[in-house]
Structures
1.
Amino acid sequence: MNKINNGPVALVHFDAHLDTWDTYFGAPYTHGTPFRRAREENLFLDNASMHVGIRGPLYSRDDLKNDASFGFKIIHCDEFQTEGIDKIVQRIKKRVGDNPLYLSIDIDVLDPAYAPGTGTPEIAGMTTREIVNVIRGLSGMNLISADVVEVSPAYDHAEVTSLAAATIIYELTNLFAKKKL
Ligand SMILES: [Mn+2]
C-alpha cells in the first residue's frame, strides 16, 4: 500500500527558465513565479530539489543567487552536451534520493525545433530523444506527481509540440505504472 505523502516534496523542474521570480511584469502570480510562491509555502525539500535544462535569459542580476538561496540546484542545458544523458540521470537520482518526487516539465525545455508551440521559446534546448531517455532513466524513483505545462497550440506547427507533449505524458504514465508499490 502506498504511503500518502502530506509533507514537502523534491521538485525536479525541466524548463528553460527558473520560474522562481518574485514578480513578472509586476505581478506575483504568473507563469514565471510559481515555484517562488510554492517555496514560500514550504512545499519543497530544500536539499533535494532542482531545475534541469535552464538556459533562458535572466530577469534580474539576482535571479541565480535568489534561486540558489531557495535551495534549488541547476543542471544547465549545455551539460547534456558535455555530460550525456546517463550522467545527468545519475545526478538527478543522487539529488532526489528516495524522497517523494514531483516532476514538472515546461515544454520549452525542448528546443523550439521540437516544441515551437509555446509562449517563450529559447534556442539551444533539449531534444525529444534526450527528454524521453532522461524520463525513462528516472524509473524506480518515488514519483508522486507530474505535469507538463506551457503547450500553446495556437503557435504550433504540424502538431509538433502536441506530439512531443503527448509522448512525454505517455512516458510519465509509464513511470507511474512501473513504480514499486
Ligand atoms: Mn519556461
2.
Amino acid sequence: METEFSKPRIAGTIDSWCGKCKLILAHTIEAMVLDKPVRVHCNTCKSQHTYKPSEPIKAVARAQPGKARSTRYKVLLNGSDAAPKSYSPQDKYQPGDVLKHASFGMGVVTTAGKDGTKIEVLFEGGSKLLVHGR
Ligand SMILES: [Zn+2]
C-alpha cells in the first residue's frame, strides 16, 4: 500500500518548482502522462503550471538576479588565486583582483573604468563602483 501512496497520481500531492512562489512547494497533480505528472497547481498560490521537479536554471538567472549574482560572485572568488588586498582608493586595481572592503567584505574587480578612476567590484551583496588610483 505504501508504494501506491508515494506514486504520483492525479489529485495527489507532489513537490514541484513554483515559478510564482520561486520555491519548491507542495503541488497538486492535475494531469499526468503515463506515470509522470505534467500539470500541477501550487498549493500555496494556486497557480497552474507544468510540473517542474527542480528549479530551472534559466529562471534563477532571470527571476532571481540576486541568486545568480551570488553564484557568479562565488565562482569569481574561487576562480581567482590572487591574494585579497585591503581596499584603498589610492591603489590601482585590475579586473580579477580580489580585494577586501571595510564595509562590503570580499569582492572581485569585474571591470576597470575607461577613465581609470573607477572600478566595478562584485561583492556578495552586489556590484559597487569604487574609486581607485587616486
Ligand atoms: Zn506558488
